[in-house]
Specification:
By secondary structure, this protein is mostly beta strands. Helices cover about 0% and strands about 55% of the residues.
Length: about 190
């Protein structure tokens, strides 16, 4: 489907020069003289390269139809992760590069959302937050609780996060999967 360059938004996927590109940013610029342009930053879905390009606002590009499907995480083998389609029960294997750093939060049976194009995964999104147990944390230093400082802690999956001083070992916390940051203490 052809769309105008000025209607492109973050997260859309287009076909340009026989490659699939995901829109990262789109800024409409109107110079004092001449026609307005769409300044676009996009990432090659397969290679991961970024490109900065300008389109005239009336230019059209081919928008690619993306299917969003739910998959269940089954297991990992090195840098390969295997998922099962929750509707068809078909299995797919995805490389760690496509998932990124949130891959360290994958747990058996976890449901993820994958954007697919022609039965090929383009991206995988984990749940926004996950509850994990702290297995190791530094002791509280007297007087440290007066300031808004954080201390390092190690989660059950080996990931290190910064937590408030009152959080200790054995505590279950909610962690944001995108950047491995502490959100709150889990409600048991």
């Amino acid at each position: 489907m052809k769309v105008s360059a000025n209607t492109l938004r973050r997260g859309m996927v287009i076909e340009y020069n026989n490659k699939l590109w995901m829109i990262m940013e789109n800024e409409l610029r109107s110079p004092g003289k001449g026609t307005a342009v769409a300044q676009i930053i996009m990432r090659d879905v397969i290679a991961g390269n970024k490109m900065d390009i300008r389109f005239a606002t009336q230019d059209t590009v081919e928008r690619v139809h993306i299917d969003e499907m739910e998959f269940q995480f089954l297991y990992s083998s090195g840098t390969e992760y295997t998922f099962m389609n929750k509707e068809t029960f078909e299995q797919i294997t995805i490389n760690e590069d496509l998932i990124g750093s949130p891959a360290e939060f994958l747990q058996d049976g976890m449901t993820v959302k994958a954007q697919m194009h022609n039965d090929r995964p383009l991206s995988v999104a984990l749940p926004e937050t996950i509850t994990m147990k702290i297995v190791e944390s530094d002791p509280v230093v007297k007087g440290q609780t007066a300031s808004s400082s954080y201390k390092p802690a190690k989660l059950e999956n080996g990931v290190r996060v910064l937590v408030p001083p009152h959080i200790g070992s054995g505590t279950r916390i909610v962690v944001r999967t995108a950047d491995a940051t502490y959100v709150e203490r889990a409600k048991d």
